[in-house]
Amino acid sequence: MDAFFASVELLRYPQLKGLPVVIGGGRRRVDEMVRERFSDRPLSEIPAGAFPLLKDYVGRGVITTATYPARQFGVGSAMGMMKAARLCPQAIVLPADFDEVRRLSRAFKAVIRDIAPVVEDRGIDEVYIDFTDVPGGQREGGRVLARLIQKSIFEATRLTCSIGVAPNKLLAKMASEFNKPNGISIVHEDDLQSRIWPLAVRKINGIGPKAEAKLLRLHVHTIGDLAAQDPEWLVDNFGQSTGRWMHNVAWGRDDRPVVTESEPVSMSRETTFDRDLHAVRDRAELGAIFTDLCERVADDLRRKGYVGKTIGIKLRYDDFRTATRDHTLEHFTDDAKAIRRVAGLCLKRVPLDRKLRLLGVRVGKLARAGSTEATAVAAPLRVEEHTPDLFQAG
DNA sequence: TCTGGGGTCCTAGGACCC
DNA sequence: TCTGGGGTCCTAGGACCC
């Protein structure tokens, strides 16, 4: 989906179309004051000039999404709000409306599944779709089906998306970036040299800032450079697994299937404080936040029907270093008090000499509530109950 | 006044088991 | 004088993605 969170806000405030708008940062709806001030008219008639600007923004946080006009100024996802404010002070800031974003996410995915049922979820605004067995999925290299999906999503949501069609997920993901926003791009196997190799290695899904920096140090800049490297040399520098993977992706090879179903591995809640907190001096405040996080995780587990047996905490110090501790229980739980107790034990094992900026609680090793795995009580088998197998007999 | 929140997967050492 | 070889699970940290 194109600039998803921002586009969702533009549905509500169409008068902001064409303007630099960023979503992010706030814990509360900073446009509430504006809405109160103009409560006598519809949202779409609030003058654009009345909205809060990035230059007036105070506080912590990062940009979730920037509209394309804002991107012209170099503002983008994951950028700190303060830095963004220097680049584009006149941008309008709005908070994310998660409920509305989730609703529209479900809506666009439902539209796709109606047309092409083999869909892999890739977060709130992205999916992989397998065109292979969709009737007409091969027409014009997939362009006809891609157009139908685009049109159907727009009719259902008034939102635009960009689609890349290619022989595998790796190339499709890259192709989807070629023609944004509201674009379609078809990449064939033969296009590797001309369209993929000139790209920076960072464009590969799976090469992040660290791998990029190391590749640049080794004078590997483009995907073509990467493809030209001896696989053995890549293995020597990045290890067996990453080295081989890098070689394969540089040659456009990816055999991962489109996975339509998956079970969650963990659920967590975390929060960055408005100001850094001290474990001793701000004990009461931290304690309340800690308990609240445990209750929210427990609530998430219950709502989604899961229990977990590994309880963990995460904290981030004022110098941005992160520490985690976890503890695995004998039994599964979704109980806030139990989670709070174990998380409290974890907290005792971590240094608390620095101020904290973030606290998080995680539950892992999940099982479906009520499943045999979740309810089985681990009882050691008594010897006389043990039926010997072939090798033990006699 | 830098740097969110919710995830997955990988690595690596150590405990423990057969 | 020589001290295995598998395997799984747990824990901590980190890279990466949306």
From TrEMBL:
Q: Which GO terms describe its biological process?
A: DNA repair; DNA-templated DNA replication; error-prone translesion synthesis; SOS response
Is rRNA-binding among this UniProt entry's keywords? no
* Main localization (coarse): cytoplasm
The GO cellular component terms are: cytosol
User: Which top EC class is given?
Assistant: transferase
Against Gene3D superfamilies, the record matches this protein to: 3.30.70.270, 3.40.1170.60, 5' to 3' exonuclease, C-terminal subdomain, DNA polymerase, Y-family, little finger domain
Residue sites binding Mg(2+) per the record: 125
Q: How is the cofactor bound?
A: Binds 2 magnesium ions per subunit.
> Which locations, inside or outside the cell, does it occupy?
Cytoplasm
Q: Does the keyword Cell division apply?
A: no
Q: Which residues form the active site?
A: 126
Cofactor dependency: Mg(2+)
Where does the entry annotate site (Substrate discrimination)? Answer: 5
Q: Which UniProt keywords apply?
A: Cytoplasm, DNA damage, DNA repair, DNA replication, DNA-binding, DNA-directed DNA polymerase, Magnesium, Metal-binding, Mutator protein, Nucleotidyltransferase, Transferase
Q: Which GO terms describe its molecular function?
A: damaged DNA binding; DNA-directed DNA polymerase activity; magnesium ion binding
Q: What does the record give as EC number? A: 2.7.7.7
Which reaction equations make up its catalytic activity? DNA(n) + a 2'-deoxyribonucleoside 5'-triphosphate = DNA(n+1) + diphosphate
Which family does the similarity line name?
Belongs to the DNA polymerase type-Y family.
How it assembles, according to the record, is: Monomer.
Function statement: Poorly processive, error-prone DNA polymerase involved in untargeted mutagenesis. Copies undamaged DNA at stalled replication forks, which arise in vivo from mismatched or misaligned primer ends. These misaligned primers can be extended by PolIV. Exhibits no 3'-5' exonuclease (proofreading) activity. May be involved in translesional synthesis, in conjunction with the beta clamp from PolIII.
Q: What is this protein called?
A: DNA polymerase IV
Q: Which organism is it from?
A: Ramlibacter algicola
> Mind giving the lineage of the organism this protein is from?
Bacteria, Pseudomonadati, Pseudomonadota, Betaproteobacteria, Burkholderiales
- Gene responsible for this protein: dinB
